[in-house]
Design brief:
The complex is a heterodimer of chains A (1131) and B (237). Chain A folds into 3 domains: 2-26 and 447-541, no CATH class; 31-87 and 100-442, 3-Layer(aba) Sandwich (Alkaline Phosphatase, subunit A); 546-764 and 828-1075, no CATH class. Chain A is 56% helix and 6% strand. Chain A is built from 37 helices and 11 strands. In chain A, helix 27 packs across helix 31 and helix 28 crosses helix 34 (1000-1031). Chain A starts with a helix and ends in an 11-residue tail after the last helix. Chain B has one domain. Chain B has helices spanning 8-43, 45-48, 58-80, 91-119, 127-149, 153-159, 168-187, 204-227. The chains are: A mainly alpha (1131), B mainly alpha (237). Chain A binds chain B through residues 554, 561-564, 566-567, 570-571, 573-574, 577-578, 585, 588-591, 594, 598-599, 601, 603-604, 628-629, 631-632, 635, and chain B through 115, 117-120, 154, 157-158, 160-164, 166, 185, 188-189, 192-194, 235-236. Chain A: Residues 887-1056 form the GPI ethanolamine phosphate transferase 2 C-terminal domain. Chain A: InterPro entries: Alkaline_phosphatase_core_sf (IPR017850), Phosphodiest/P_Trfase (IPR002591), PIG-O_N (IPR037675), PIGG/GPI7_C (IPR045687), PIGO/GPI13 (IPR039524). Chain A: One of its GO terms (molecular function) is mannose-ethanolamine phosphotransferase activity. Chain A: Keywords: Endoplasmic reticulum, Glycoprotein, GPI-anchor biosynthesis, Membrane, Transferase, Transmembrane, Transmembrane helix.
């Protein structure tokens, strides 16, 4: 019951955090209202006559069409400079040769030879620069908001008015070939369509070759009015390699040739548009808003002359969505209802007309139509949603009515309106740009109430964690008061919600969840306040030692600085190292490192020793240095944040596949396999050391045989993955099949291992022996006869005890003959063995999701946490009867290490750093984004969170493990007098983790406390993120740094809290299994009709030394069963 | 630390107190001299060297500061002699002692360098800068230790543990050393910020932090000892 209540309470606290996060998110990550209104051909956008042949009928809706046909070529991630020629940085020098520069030679020739027919623009895409958002923008002319960013690979149909819908409703035949995303966006509107899967970014050829095969025949067939193609090769090349890879040159040359072929086939009434939907960073990724990502190429070409003037030296920069109204009017379509783009005015000039006035008039009329449409949209939108700024709206409306009046004046009196014309065009442009700026500003408007509410809820929950974890350390702690307020609050909130729902108030799930959370939190806090305020001073609420509090505050403050978030990969290890040095220094300061003789003043001689040093100086210093070294080495695996100005990511993070040199590749492969072997060997060594490897239980057998098999599978997978391109063609199918099956096999093995572990978690070796259990009682670590006084001091009590027991044994034997002894080994490390096994089993599939060389980081991770646990254990005293405590610095160091590992495994809290390739591990044909892909990518991103959260119980267990080590160390040397004097009390075998079992109540309390403390440290981080994002919501970098950090931190928190609950549940499962194991043991002994004595051993190493010892009765039910059990100390 | 004082020990205690007051005065003067030497190292070189400034010719200043602080420490040690001079005073003993001190100093420089690298300082680039930072930190911490305690590592360890201090001098040494460490640690905090100031470059902010920490320790320790003089009882007195 206690165990379940611990888990329930932790789950409830996690729910409180989730509710806070959700409430904040709903106020912070903004959404835009999507209007479903459509522009129609017959209905003009505003009052006044339609200009220039607009007749309100298909073909000439608002304006007469200039082109009856359109070829739109979208080349995914065609960055602006990809379409530029090679240039020399300084004139006179040879041009810079980069794989992506100057490969579109045909475009350049067109631009130079036909300046009035072709034009290149630098199109500025609005962030987020993900393909689906860009396609939405390119067809609707609006601004997709941040919230949509997450749905890039699971896109749904566009409900807003858009170009494609307009085309099909005016009866144009739209033919599409390319990226499948279009099918999701515009289902069923194409007259002919050829879709290719877009998600497999490793495939550079399938999509492009497929399009190429059908492109020219379709063009020649004349069964189309609008032909849209979407090529993916360039984008995939960026994702797979980067723009500097020779493959990029090949792709761009191919695209250039394709355009050449298209131009040859163009007819006079056809417009060709070549555009990139976004750019890419120097590492080939996109999604953010850096300069390189947002600049896309836009190329227009018409066989007829289109532009009145020759292009400027430097291509003009225009917003990407300008293409939407421009295309709409050029094709004689109505502009999509929600468009806020501004037409490219120069294409509406009348080339044939020699008079510049008419040209300008044509431009003005196009702009006026555009402005009317935007004004209509604004009117409708502001009637629907109130999120536009009212003042700005009024200003813009005034501006529009003035411009509109001017325009009407111009139309009525064409003579002498030169001056008016000069003012109308800028006015209209000013209006359109103003609207766009206002929309950008307003669709980033926050709901402050929800943000504040979310932050307050998070803060209150953090406070709750602090409070309850403090309670759980007190000896008089009991669970009753925890659950009552929770249950009553939750039920009250439910009733409230039901009432509200029945009265018909509309509430979204976020608010409902938050209300439930507050409802259950309030009575709890009230009760806590009432009981606390009277009893204890408030000062004891801050139980953390000063330095740890200071470090935590520094970490908290770091979330408010963009620089600190960007460089967190360096800041977290800095704090971690500081904490470690502080720990070592504190151990020294408290005199636990050196023998007191050395610290006391020699002249004074004897001084009251503050207890013998638990750990030798060299031990602790060695641990510290090892940790520092590990952290520093792991720091070599560093990925740059996209905002860091001068920075190069570590080449170690790239997969081995991209290494060109065969020799280096082999060497690295060897190193990776070495790391794998070392990881396996160290885990086995650890288990061996504590004796758990001797157990015949299935999980241990799995560790002995299954783990190496998993390692083998991983190594084989790496070999295939890194050398797949070099495989001979006839083996290709085999290789690709194997590289799909191997990860699945490893994951399956890991899953079965975990199942086994859950089924039989007790890894104990039981030996039933009839005979004298007391052979051990004389514990002689020396080989010879006693030589010194110390030896005698030690041995004599032993002999005395031996004789005593001998007598007692004889007495007992007279009572009942045939005493059966059951010796159980490794009980002392039974909990941590299960946790370590679970961690290892988890680590393998996670490792597969990363690049090969990350295995070194995983090795370092295990090593590092091992060292840290040892170092932490050095400072924790073992309080036998409980209550047990997990110190704050331990929990904080653990959380810091989780953060550090997040970075060293090649992650950064930005969207462009998400390692999408993880979605293809063990997946054969990924047609599109599924939940499995999301799961794989999530597991890759939050691997460190998972591992550290599941491993969290080790913080509680490890000091008990180290008890064994400490006592052994003390026993080995004969020692000096002082030690000999204390030895008789210490001689008792260490009971290690069985101490926890002896006090089940305190054990549960300690687990609760551990969970709450970890949640508190994580919660403080998320609270800091939330506060930073709300305070700095108008900061320049809020969408580049703070918002992604918040999202990653929130996701990480959710993953961590789930992992934590699972880890604690695992420990509880082991505990339950140990209980039933004891019960069973007793039952079998009873059935055998013998009075038995149970001998268990805590020390795993005793498995080698064969020193079983009497275990204390581990629970009261054993005593009741009439079995004779012995405490070591009482025997 | 409440040591039961018998009546007889009372007069000893008053004697101690007067002794302590003179000691505190001495301590204050020596610390003022140390601070003065640091200030001099900032202003004097500009008369001799062209274009001298702390930020631009940082390494030069570091060397000068280090040398002047070392010199003042040595002179003060020879003049004040805070600890009982050793019984042996043969030349060879003094020479070996001096050489040992030099080795200790160098070792501590390398030790600090390694710590900085482990903390995240670049391994190969800017090695000279990192090392000079190690030198200045050694000047502020190791040199006073060497002066006061000699090349006796165990004594050093004793000072930095609870209840290990045996005199005012050691107490002040403890305070200045810890504040130097805290200073250099705090000095690392502005480095990631994107303010683009010249003093944010490695290792300027850290050296400045260490210097400020040292000076703060020099100022604080006499005051702290003065305020707590009633509570402080040293076990060897």
């Amino acid at each position: 019951m206690q165990k379940i209540s611990v888990l329930l309470f932790l789950a409830w606290v996690s729910f409180l955090f989730y509710a806070g996060i959700a409430l904040f998110t709903s106020g912070f990550l903004l959404t835009r209202w999507e209007l479903t209104n459509h522009s129609s051909c017959q209905e003009p956008p505003g009052p006044g006559a339609l200009p220039w042949g607009g007749r309100g009928e298909p073909g000439a809706c608002w304006m007469a069409s200039r082109f009856s046909r359109l070829v739109l070529v979208v080349i995914d991630a065609l960055r602006f400079d990809f379409a530029q020629p090679q240039r020399s940085p300084v004139s006179g020098e040879p041009p810079v040769s980069l794989p992506f520069l100057g490969k579109m030679g045909f475009l350049q020739r067109l631009l130079e030879s036909q300046p009035h027919h072709a034009r290149l623009y630098q199109a500025k895409a609005d962030p987020p620069t993900t393909t689906m958002q860009r396609l939405k923008a390119l067809t609707t002319g609006s601004l997709p908001t941040f919230v949509d960013a997450g749905s890039n690979f699971a896109s749904s149909a566009i409900v807003e008015d858009n170009l494609i819908k307009q085309l099909s409703s005016t009866g144009r035949r739209v033919v599409f070939m390319g990226d499948e995303t279009w099918n999701d966006l515009f289902p069923g509107v194409f007259s002919q369509a050829l879709f290719f899967p877009s998600f497999n970014v490793r495939d550079l050829e399938t999509v492009d070759n497929g399009i190429m095969k059908h492109l020219y025949p379709t063009m020649d067939s004349d069964e189309w009015d609008v032909l849209i193609t979407h090529f993916l090769g360039v984008d995939h090349c960026g994702h797979k390699h980067d723009p500097y890879h020779p493959e990029m040159a090949k792709k761009l040359t191919q695209m250039d040739k394709m355009i050449q072929g298209l131009v040859k086939r163009l007819k006079n009434d056809t417009l060709l548009v070549v555009t990139g939907d976004h750019g890419m960073t120097i590492s080939g990724n996109h999604g953010g808003e850096s300069e390189l990502e947002t600049s896309a190429a836009l190329f227009l070409y018409s066989p007829r002359a289109l532009f009145p003037s020759a292009p400027a030296e430097e291509p003009e920069i225009i917003p990407q969505i300008s293409l939407v109204p421009t295309l709409a009017l050029l094709l004689g379509l109505p502009i999509p209802f929600g468009n806020i783009g501004e037409v490219i005015a120069e294409v509406f000039s009348e080339i044939e007309d020699s008079q510049p006035r008419f040209s300008a008039l044509a431009q003005a009329s196009a702009l006026h139509l555009n402005a009317q449409q935007v004004s209509r949209f604004l009117h409708t939108y502001s009637a629907t949603a109130q999120d536009l700024q009212v003042q700005e709206l009024h200003r813009l409306q005034k501006l529009f009515s003035k411009a509109s009046a001017d325009y009407q004046r111009l139309l009525q009196s064409p003579q002498g309106a030169e001056a008016v014309l000069q003012t109308v065009i800028p006015e209209l442009q000013q209006f359109l740009r103003g609207v766009r700026a206002m929309c950008i500003e307003s669709w980033a408007r926050f709901s402050l109430v929800r943000m504040a509410g979310g932050a307050a809820l998070l803060a209150a929950t953090c406070f709750l964690c602090l409070l309850v974890s403090q309670w759980a350390t007190s000896p008089a702690f009991y669970f009753g008061p925890l659950l009552k307020p929770t249950a009553s609050g939750l039920s009250g909130a439910m009733v409230c919600a039901g009432l509200l729902a029945s009265t018909g108030l509309k509430l979204d799930s976020m608010v409902l969840g938050a209300m439930a959370a507050v409802g259950s939190l309030l009575p709890f806090l009230w009760k806590a306040w009432a009981s606390w305020g009277s009893k204890r001073p408030l000062a004891s609420l801050l139980p953390m030692p000063g330095p740890v509090l200071l470090l935590l505050l520094i970490r908290f403050a770091g979330f408010f600085s963009d620089s600190y978030i960007i460089t967190e990969a360096r800041v977290a290890p800095f704090l971690l190292i500081s904490l470690i040095l502080l720990l070592v220094a504190r151990l020294h300061w408290e005199g636990k490192l050196l023998p007191p003789k050395l610290l006391s003043i020699p002249r004074l001689g004897f001084l009251t020793p503050a207890g013998p040093p638990q750990y030798s100086a060299m031990h602790a210093v060695g641990l510290g240095v090892g940790l520092l070294l590990c952290i520093r080495l792991a720091g070599l695996f560093y990925r740059c944040h996209e905002e860091t100005p001068v920075c190069s990511s570590s080449p170690l993070l790239s997969p081995l596949r991209s290494t060109v040199d065969g020799r280096t590749k082999n060497l690295w492969y060897g190193a990776c396999v070495g790391a794998l072997v070392a990881l396996l060997a160290s885990v086995r060594l650890w288990l061996h050391c504590y004796g758990n490897l001797k157990s015949p239980e299935p999980p241990v057998l799995f560790v002995r045989w299954g783990l190496p098999l998993m390692g083998l599978g991983t190594a084989a997978y790496w070999a295939l993955a890194s050398g797949a391109d070099e495989a001979p063609p006839r083996l290709r199918a085999l290789v690709s099949g194997a590289s799909v099956m191997l990860p699945r096999a490893v994951a399956g093995l890991a899953a079965s291992g975990l199942m086994l572990l859950l089924w039989r978690p007790v890894t104990v070796l039981v030996k039933a022996t009839t005979g004298a259990p007391r052979t051990r009682t004389v514990l002689t670590p020396f080989s010879g006869p006693p030589t010194s006084q110390a030896d005698l001091d030690y041995v004599v009590p032993q002999i005395y005890r031996h004789i005593q027991e001998e007598f007692r044994g004889r007495l007992e034997r007279t009572k009942s003959q045939g005493l059966l002894t059951v010796a159980a080994y490794q009980l002392g490390s039974v909990y941590s063995a299960a946790v370590v096994m679970a961690l290892t089993l988890l680590a393998f599939p996670l490792l597969l999701l990363h690049a090969e060389r990350i295995s070194l980081v995983f090795l370092l991770l295990f090593l590092q946490s091992f060292l840290l646990l040892h170092l932490l254990a050095a400072g924790i005293p073992i309080t036998t009867p409980g209550p047990f405590t997990v110190p704050w610095h331990a929990v904080f160091a653990w959380a810091l290490m989780a953060t550090q590992t997040f970075y060293t495994t090649g992650h950064q809290p930005v969207f462009s750093a998400i390692q999408w390739h993880a979605a293809f591990v063990g997946v054969s044909e990924s047609r599109d984004f599924t939940w499995l892909s999301a799961f794989l990518v999530g597991a890759n991103t939050f691997a460190s969170h998972i591992l550290f959260a599941v491993g969290c119980p080790l913080l509680l267990l490890w000091p008990f493990l180290c008890e064994n080590q400490g006592s052994q160390k003390r026993r080995q040397p004969p020692g000096n007098e002082a030690e000999a004097r204390v030895r008789p009390e210490e001689e008792q075998e260490p009971r290690m983790e069985m101490r926890l079992r002896d006090a089940p109540h305190h054990f549960s309390a300690a687990l609760l406390q551990l969970g709450l403390k970890y949640l508190f440290v994580l919660g403080i981080q998320i609270l800091a993120c939330v506060l930073a994002a709300s305070i700095l919501r108008r900061h320049l970098l809020v969408w580049k740094v703070f918002a992604p950090k918040f999202i990653f931190e929130a996701m990480g928190f959710i993953v961590s809290s789930v992992g934590l609950c699972l880890g604690i549940a695992l420990v509880m499962r082991v505990d339950g299994a140990v209980s039933s194991w004891f019960r069973q043991l007793v039952l079998t002994q009873q059935k055998a009709g013998e009075q038995s004595s149970l001998v268990c051993t805590g020390a795993g190493s005793s498995a080698r030394k064969a020193q079983p010892h009497l275990l204390p009765p581990c629970s009261q039910d054993l005593l009741a069963s009439g079995t004779s059990l012995f405490y070591n100390s009482r025997s | 630390m409440d040591w039961p004082l018998s009546d007889t020990s009372f007069c000893i205690a008053t004697q101690e107190n007067t002794m302590k007051d003179t000691d505190i005065k001495k301590l204050l003067y020596t610390h003022l001299l140390c601070i003065f030497s640091i200030i001099l190292s900032i202003f004097i070189p500009s008369f001799f060297l062209e274009n001298f400034s702390i930020l631009e010719t940082h390494l030069t200043w570091l060397c000068i500061c280090s040398v002047s602080v070392t010199a003042v420490n040595l002179v003060l040690y020879l003049v004040v002699k805070p600890n009982v001079s050793s019984k042996r005073s043969s030349l060879s003993y003094k020479v070996t002692r001096f050489l040992k001190c030099c080795i200790y100093f160098l070792t501590s420089c390398f030790f600090f360098h390694v710590i900085f690298v482990l903390y995240g300082a670049p391994l190969i680039e800017l090695a000279l800068e990192t090392f000079s930072l190690a030198v200045i930190l050694s000047t502020f911490t190791t040199i006073p230790c060497l002066c006061l305690l000699g090349p006796n590592f165990k004594a050093w360890l004793r000072i930095f543990s609870r209840n290990g201090v045996t005199s005012i001098w050691e107490n002040s040494l403890q305070i200045t050393t810890i504040s130097s460490f805290v200073g250099i640690w705090l000095g690392a905090f502005p480095i990631p910020l994107d303010w683009g100031r010249p003093w944010q470059e490695w290792p300027i902010s850290c050296t400045l932090g260490a210097t400020f920490g040292y000076v703060a320790g020099l100022v604080i320790s006499p005051l702290w000892i003065y305020w707590n003089r009633k509570k402080l009882t040293y076990k060897n007195n």
